[in-house]
Design brief:
CATH architecture of the largest domain: 3-Layer(aba) Sandwich
Helix content: 40-55%
Number of helices: 16
Strand content: 5-15%
Bound molecules: adenine
CATH topology of the largest domain: Rossmann fold
Order of helices and strands: HHHEHEHEHEEEHEHHHHHHHEEHH
Structural class: alpha/beta
Strand order of the largest sheet: 2-3-6-1-7
Shape: globular
């Protein structure tokens, strides 16, 4: 059984990553966790290989032209590394990054303040950019297009527009809902990329890397077991590493093996393909109460006592990806594969209902 802390690849990853020389005792198990394990370079950022290659070219070209990178939009389900990638780009461009999110830019002065604080070449990262309000969007248009801030003063006949120059900057927007972005805002991004779910092999590497940074002993099979149940999402994989390592500490002197990982994930009610209680309840509800669907998302959210946005952004993307759920104009439908996975005996009868 190979213990990953001896793994040569991991040692190389550690060398390449600037932020990994952190002693385990200094790691706070809180919201800083994600920042602690965030890769800082393309070499240590696992997965999204096609995207990384095109980004490297764009970065090289921008550097040769001595201009900031074009404005970039990343879209895709949560937890796939959009913020992390923005940090890697900043590192690669050798510039600072300011990170905010659309709900924090409610008042005009919030967006004006942040734009005026930018220095030449800096990156402004706006998460959940589809949630920007109209006023903030309109302030952003000339800022993105001409690097200027159009301010109005006075009222009615005395109204004056003042155009203030801004330093050249790069806006990186991230969204889980590309379709919810207004057309004019979307058109102002030079580069638009979708982030894909990770393969099991890629997630295994993520689990091994995170365990190594946190000095957690884990076997190859233990890493695979966690990866298999992480729904294609590194953020979930990293959270599960934490949970499983707690269990391993109590039950197995801290070492994560396949058996320890499986037992611990079973206790957490995460099934063998990574579905959690909410996912299973959603599918069961559609099967048992709505004959497999179609049924509207609002009805499902009300019946489950969940927020529509949580269902749409957190539960649905992976269920759609693995073909367990379908979106139709009349609502959500489950697939025969989902029925089979959930162990419905009358699966063939159920199928005829769809
Ligand atoms: N942690 C979160 N996302 C990651 C990624 N893409 N590569 C490595 N570690 C990660």
């Amino acid at each position: 059984m190979s213990i990953i802390s001896d793994d040569k690849d991991i040692k190389e990853i550690k060398k390449a990553d600037k932020n990994v020389n952190i002693k385990p005792e200094t790691i706070e198990y809180d919201k800083n966790f994600e920042n602690t394990i965030r890769p800082k370079t393309f070499e240590t950022y696992i997965g999204q290989s096609a995207l990384k290659e095109t980004l490297k070219i764009s970065i090289e070209a921008a550097k040769k032209r001595e201009l900031p990178l074009d404005h970039l939009l990343f879209y895709g389900p949560p937890g796939l590394g959009k913020t992390t990638l923005a940090g890697v780009i900043a590192e690669q461009m050798g510039v600072d990054i300011k990170i905010t999110s659309a709900p924090a830019l409610e008042r005009p002065r919030d967006i004006i303040g942040i734009l005026m604080s930018l220095k030449g070449g800096e990156i402004l990262f706006i998460d959940e950019i589809h949630r920007l309000n109209r006023v903030a969007e309109e302030i952003l248009y000339p800022a993105m297009e001409d690097f200027s801030l159009d301010m109005t003063t006075g009222k009615a006949q005395t109204v004056k527009t003042l155009r203030l120059p801004l330093p050249k900057f790069t806006l990186i927007g991230a969204t889980t809902k590309a379709g919810a972005l207004s057309g004019p805002l979307r058109d102002r991004f030079g580069i638009i990329h979708r982030l894909e779910f990770y393969t099991e092999d890629e997630l295994t590497q993520v689990v091994k890397r995170t365990s190594s940074i946190l000095d957690i002993a884990i076997t190859e099979e233990g890493a695979k077991a966690i990866a298999r149940r992480s729904r294609g999402t590194p953020r979930i994989a990293n959270r599960l590493v934490k949970r499983v390592s707690d269990y391993a500490l109590v039950k197995n002197n801290g070492k994560i093996t396949e058996d320890i990982a499986n037992k611990s994930l079973d206790i957490l009610n995460i099934d063998d393909i990574g579905l959690d209680t909410t996912d299973r309840n959603l599918l069961k509800l559609i099967i048992e109460k709505f004959n497999g669907g179609p049924v509207g998302i609002e009805t499902l959210a009300a019946a489950l006592g969940e927020d529509v946005r949580t269902l749409e952004d957190v539960s649905e993307p992976y269920l759609l990806q693995i073909g367990f759920l379908q979106r139709t104009p009349r609502g959500r439908k489950v697939s025969p594969a989902a029925c089979k996975h959930l162990g419905y005996k009358n699966f063939s009868e159920q199928q005829s209902l769809f």
